[in-house]
Amino acid sequence: MRLSSLAIIAATFLAAAIASLFAASAAVTLIEENSEYGVRQAFDTKGLTWAEVHADGLQVFLTGTAPSEAGRFLAISTAGEVVDAARVIDQMEMAATRRLTPPRFSIEILRNDAGISLIGLIPAETDREDLLEQLSRINGEDVADLLEIADYPTPSGWDKAVDYAVRSLSSLPRSKISVAADRVAITAMSDSTDEKRNLETELSRKAPDGVRVTMDISAPRPVITPFSLRFLIDADGVRFDSCSANTEEARDRILHAATEAGYSGKAACTIGLGVPSPNWARAAEMSIAALAKLGGGSVTFADADITLVAAEGTEQTSFDQIIGELENTLPEVFALHGVLPKVETEAEQSTPEFVATLSPEGLVHLRGRMSNTLSRETAISFAQARFGSGVVHSSARLDDNLPLDWPVRVLTGLDALAKLSNGAVTITPDNISISGNTGDPDANADISRLLSEKLGEAQTFDIKVTYQKKLDPVAGLPTPDECIAAIKAAQKQQKISFEPGSDTIDGGSRKTVDTIAEVLKTCGQIKLEIAGHTDSQGREVMNQQLSQARAQAVLNGLRERRVLTSTFSAVGYGETQPIGDNKTEEGREANRRIEFTLIKPKPIKETETTLESVEKTEQGDTTQQDGASQTPAQGVPDDTD
């Protein structure tokens, strides 16, 4: 009886323990589930989808890969808002830190009369001492070195860009050159429009492959001394020998007045500095209009001195009236000298003269009259100094009755003749006449200014100088596009063909290569790609190799003919660029060809390249375009397999 009571009591306690155990387990499970659900819901609300939650009893474990330290802290704080912060266990990982972006390397090279300065950031691998030594040789003195160094790999194209900038600096005494990897920006000043054109041509041709070059070369207005203008109406027509203006408005007013007087050409009216009066355009307008009323002659400005020479046969009454009106209405400062030529009688026509001729070969012949032995020897010595001691021949005779200013007129005439490629100057007591051909587009204006300055305001002269492009040392050169057109014409006459399956140029095509070589010798340094192409017969790899070999054979052929090929490249394209149907013999024949392609720099928008502007650019856009584009000219099929 007693045992039964104890068993019942024990069983009761056991049942209570088991019930408590089940109740505790259920409570723990409920807490875990509620904790996980609450934290996960809070993470989703704040966009922390990368974080994972796992509860074990009262502890809440946070796992996952945090994108940053701030994200990790936000996850811990969010979990602490749902459950007791002491229950939160951080087992999260951090995302790997992104590798630091290398800096943007650049150099600003400044050159002026004070010397050369460098500022910027360069790679540690750059030979700094060699760079400074090269610049010192250009400037002849120490270089101001403000460069910083960063130990990062040298970017592609950096060395070529720096080398090109240093080579260019020798031609640019007043300039700023901004250098970055694969890009050079040149800002410079030139002394004249011609020098600007020459610099742009030279720098473009020197630019290496893969380096983008932008240029901003300014040509300041020239100082014109004397400030001159010469307008004529005669049997040869209505024309300018010289035209100068101080502003674009003044130029337009002068040309409009000339048009009203019968001028129909396109005058090169130079805008420059040195105008003697702000009323230059008004004085020119009035003088040109007066000359038109007279019906012919010339009007010449040398600063504020005006010489108006009427045509022979002009009535004295009309001349006096028009000149008188002009004298009384000209702006202040300007002084007018009117000349009415006398009609010569037969007895007066035998006037003394001196003539100097310059042949196209450079030979100079002096004949006519000179005042005395000393003036004759002086003229010969002056001509030898101008044209060369071995090319001057004199047959001038002495005449004691010549005017006192005769030696000055002779030397002035020889000075003017030196500005021509060939021609003649004729000097009389009343006039100097110069005629011939020149390759200088400004020769007329230069000669007009020279004669006005040396002879004085009361003297007359005639200029009949013709500009010929072929004599111009700059404009006479063919443009790269003209060179390609000439090559194309030669290819149309005869294809460049090869022996079957070989890279050997056959005998019939050597004449074509000779012609192309002669064309390229006149073109200077242009960037040219010689591309080889084949048809699709045979293996693709073999066709590519054959096209490369044939392109190289053409390049070698040009080198053998003494063509400068440092800027040429040979590229084989195999069968990848057909221009005809490979299923027909005609199409395959068209595809077997050599093409000449002119390589031009890709135009880009110029931007600042200072360190500050570069940093701003990198913050906004780290993408950069590199390289240069090829602008193909029309090639002509040139070879046969």
Give a description of the structure:
- The chain has 641 residues and is an alpha/beta fold.
- It has 5 domains: 83 residues, 2-Layer Sandwich (Histidine-containing Protein, Chain: A), CATH 3.30.1340.30; 113 residues, hypothetical protein tt1634 (3-Layer(aba) Sandwich); 112 residues, hypothetical protein tt1634 (3-Layer(aba) Sandwich); 120 residues, hypothetical protein tt1634 (3-Layer(aba) Sandwich), CATH 3.40.1520; 140 residues, OmpA-like domain (60s Ribosomal Protein L30, Chain: A, 2-Layer Sandwich), CATH 3.30.1330.
- It is 38% helix and 23% strand.
- It contains 16 helices and 28 strands.
- Strands 19, 20, 21, 22, 23, 24 and 25 form a 7-stranded mixed sheet that branches. It has a 6-stranded mixed sheet with strand order 8-7-6-9-10-11, with helices on one face.
- A hairpin with a 2-residue loop joins strand 9 and strand 10.
- Helix 1 crosses helix 2, helix 6 packs parallel to helix 7 and helix 10 packs antiparallel against helix 11.
- The chain is elongated and about 175 Å long.
- The C terminus is likely disordered.
Summarize the structure.
The protein has 641 residues and is α/β, with parallel strands linked by helices. It has 16 helices and 28 strands. The strands form seven sheets. Strands 19, 20, 21, 22, 23, 24 and 25 form a seven-stranded mixed β-sheet that branches. A six-stranded mixed β-sheet has the order 8-7-6-9-10-11, with helices on one face. The protein has a five-stranded mixed β-sheet with strand order 13-12-16-17-18, with helices on both faces.
